[in-house]
Amino acid sequence: MRISTDSFSMFLSLTSVIVILIISEAEATDRITTTQFLRENETIVSSGGSFELGFFRPGSSQNLYLGIWYKKITARTVVWVANREAPLTNQSVILKISSPGILNLYNETGFIIWSSNTSTRVEDPIAQLLDSGNLVVREANDDNPENFLWQSFDYPGNTFLPGMKLGKNLITDLDRYLSSWKSNDDPAPGDYTYRMDTRGYPQFVLRNGAIEKFRPGPWNGLTFSGSSLKPNMIFNYSFVFSKEEVYYTYELTNSSVISRRVLNQSVGVMQRWTWADHRGWILYSEIPMDNCDIYASCGEYGSCNIGNTPQCGCLDKFVPRHQNNWDSGDWSSGCIRRVPLACRGGEGFMKYSGLKLPDTRNSWFNTSMTLEECRKMCLGNCSCMAYARLDIRKGASGCLMWLGSLVDIRETEDGQDIYVKMASSELGSQGKRREAIIVSLTLVIGVSLLCLSLTLYFWKKKHRQLERTGIMSHGSSHTETSKSHKEDLQLPSFDLATIVDATDNFSLHNKLGEGGFGPVYKGVLEGGQEIAVKRLSSSSRQGLDEFKNEVIYIAKLQHRNLVKLLGCCIQGEEKMLIYEYLSNKSLDLFIFDETLSKLLDWPKRFHIIDGISRGLLYLHQDSRLRIIHRDLKASNILLDIDMTPKISDFGMARSFGANETEANTNRVVGTYGYMSPEYAVDGIFSVKSDVFSFGVLVLEIVSGKRNRGFSHSNHFHNLLGHAWKLYQEGRALEVVDAAVVNSIYVSEMLRSIQVALLCVQQSPEDRPSMSSVVLMLGNDGALPQPKEPGFFTERTVVEFEYSTSRDTPSSVNEITITVLEAR
Asked: How many Cβ atoms are within 10 Å of 289's Cβ, its own excluded?
């Protein structure tokens, strides 16, 4: 399409005329020259057909914007907006490139409301939309296709596309950062930004206005020290830091995959979305992920552990700055050294491992120094509080020093070592040993040999103990190797006499219940800590394999919605697991009890549903292993004093490798009523098996009824079938427990039911992932329509009577029951 300059002048003079010209697909082009215009309802399509440039109206807004969106996705998804802060209100708009090489956007009066800041003048400029989604201005006859005069990738909005650079040009001071939209109807820059902070060692910071909200940690050569970013099958990533620029970028490993990162304006999180043709946008990951990701949540020298209660603690040798505030749950004042630094010489360093490195805005770094050189420099600088390796890759080093207090620390599975300066009196034998090294080489060798001998002695003792229990030979059915299993077994060991004393010799009045593993007892340790003790019974329907599973899979899992394993006791024939005690016991005691269920109003029930979903998301996606629980049910959800749900009983769990999606077993274990069809019938299990169980659990929480054994006067369907029929008839609210029906929460109730029905669909491929479930529960967007649930067949009267007789609740002993039945 070509339009003359005279036509353009005529357009500017006839501002009252609305010009609408639709370009046919054959006429569509990927570029604009100085003799071409772009008007509303016209589009520029990238050469590969992936993206489209044109005018659009966001949401319900009547304002007009110039933007870029995906061409092949039916739901328009805008990835870049030119005139974010200068909306147009009239259809008479034109985009034109002038001969100096500047893109201009004119309104109906001919006034330029947006312009590219191209400074170089060229005779024959063109504007071109590349198939990466990058709008560029370049010289038409330039043989170098990447010699751009201007590009939209240098001015991102709320979306981070593959090939973009997120960071700073240190020569020109060009700052490429993300800023959220104000709302779905307004793409103007919102409150949230995600940008590189180059004060000290460069780091990304997510801010709400001027307030820091999240920091992924500094780059350590492999990843960001506090993030879950790891090699994956969707995208490759890299971090570049040179004299000219510092930035992070990524590329998709498969060109057919559509994936983007977005700074969400409603909740202020960075989200990665991937597109599936039959399911739409699927949430792949998001940051911040949990409460420990909140910036400086534990104050100076405080460390956050999401698996602890409370989640904040002081680093070793540090104490709360204000104990009263700390005891009341206000950790913002942080911690101070137990013994202050005097900087008179004699100080040393204490090593802390497995940490997200602190805020680096007040740091100093050197890429070539060794760790020992770094230590000496920090020791000689009174302002230096800590140091660490800059690059943890094999053969690399570098020095990173903190010249002030340490802020925003958390414990992570893949965390780093940091060396914190301490007074010599706090170093104990470490300091004496260092002095001995200086005084006498002979003494050092002696001490080293002694330490080695003691280490070997205790290692052999523990090795023999673990061999006696059979834990170290867990078998090849799991994806992790024996070596990693050994690493996972670093649990505190409780003495049998301690547990006997704590449980009053396993007295009957301390017994909480009994399941497939064995009896569970309440205990109180000498210091007053309450514990729950699972004791492996000689007649257990589970046994040693499940005991091994419990230790291996939960020993290092850290999440507020998973029960915390405190340790184990292995002595003679006794094998016990010691857990945190949860005063409200199990969920089934509440929801299936006519009296106790009245204590669960809808906000509490939704809080429980949300907590279980986040716990499962952690198991499926965010934990070090991809863990399938395989026995998710109401009795395996424990409740703490605040009714926070915690998933328990990992005796049936299995782990998957990064490339595995499903597995098959000849031994179907679990609980009927919660098992997915493909698992119960064919022994095939995957993360979607847990999703099915979660859907059943949600319907039970909403209705207060059991799925198996459910009865209704009009039909013989189970709870899934009953909910499905009511949903189809537009009467889904009738599923809700009469004790909690409240008009204030109707939309949330209906949403929970629909999400549950999506989870229990017959085909595993139709069920959403837990990341999508968490997102669907957390916002008000439109949901897909569910298909028929699994096991949707009407039972005969005989089948129904048999089912109800088997599933009638009997006592609190159900709190840990796991039913094992052959196929």
From this structure: 19
| All residues at 6 or more sequence positions from 407 whose CB lies less than 8 Å from its CB, including other chains | 296, 299, 300, 334, 358, 359
19's tokens: 């010009």
Given 197, 631, 649, 737, which residue is catalytic?
631
In a domain, 56, yes or no: yes
pLDDT in tens, 422-447: 998 888 655 445 544 544 555 666 66
Residues 392 and 491 in one domain: no
Whole-number Å distance between alpha carbons of 470 and 486: 12
Which DSSP helix (H) or strand (E) runs through 789? Answer: none
Single-letter code of the amino acid located at 19: V
Q: Encode pLDDT of 253-310 as tens digits.
A: 988 889 999 999 988 999 999 998 878 898 888 899 888 999 999 999 999 998 888 8
Task: Answer yes or no: do 742 and 680 share one domain.
Answer: yes
C-alpha span between 113 and 96 (Å, rounded): 12
In this structure, the answer to whether residues 297 and 406 fall within a common structural domain is yes
First and final C-alpha spacing in the chain = 68
Give the pLDDT band of residue 450 (cuts 50, 70, 90).
confident
User: b vs e for 808-817, b when ≥16 Cβ sit within 10 Å of the residue's Cβ?
Assistant: eeeebbbbbb
Whether residue 804 contacts residue 706, with contact meaning beta carbons closer than 8 Å, is answered with: no
Question: 3-class SS at 766?
Answer: helix
What is the chain's alpha carbon radius of gyration, rounded to the nearest angstrom? Answer: 31
For residue 459, the number of C-alpha atoms closer than 13 Å in the C-beta half-sphere is: 8
Give the 3-state DSSP-derived string for 260-317, with helices as H, strands as E and coil as C.
Answer: EEEECCCCCCEEEEEEECCCEEEEEEEECCCHHHCCCCCCCCEEECCCCCCCEEECCC
**Rounded to whole angstroms, how far apart are CA atoms 328 and 330?**
6
Least confident range from 147-151, 449-453, 753-757: namely 449-453
Query: What residues contact 531, with CB distance under 8 A and at least 6 apart?
Result: 502, 522, 523, 524, 525, 566, 578, 579, 580, 581
- Could you please report the per-residue DSSP string of 663-724? EE-SS-BS-TTTS-HHHHHH-EEEHHHHHHHHHHHHHHHHHS--STT--BTTB---HHHHHH
pLDDT band at 755 (very low <50, low <70, confident <90, very high): very high
Separation CA 105–CA 435 (nearest Å): 72
* Cα(98)–Cα(817) distance, integer angstroms: 75
Query: The tokens 């209660």 sit on which residue?
Result: 309
pLDDT of 463: 53
| Mean pLDDT value across residues 698-703 | 96
Q: Mean per-residue pLDDT for 712-741?
A: 87
Nearest Cα neighbor of 486 from 516, 459, 455 is 459
Q: Is 499 inside any structural domain?
A: yes
775 and 796 together in one domain: yes
What pLDDT digit, counting tens, does each position of 352-397 carry?
999 999 999 999 999 999 999 999 999 999 999 999 999 999 888 8
**Same structural domain for residues 568 and 639?**
no
> Are 679 and 721 in a shared domain?
yes
Q: Which residue is associated with the tokens 């006034």?
A: 111
Q: Is 495 labeled as catalytic in the residue annotation?
A: no
Number of compact structural domains in the chain: 5
The answer to whether the beta carbons of residues 767 and 691 sit under 8 Å apart is yes
Domain containing 109 equals 1-155
What six digits make up the tokens of 218? 């500094």
- Domain assignment present for residue 43? The answer is yes
Residues 344 and 396 placed together within one structural domain of the fold? yes
Check whether 659 has a pLDDT greater than 50: no
Whole-angstrom Cα distance, residue 132 to residue 707?
A: 49
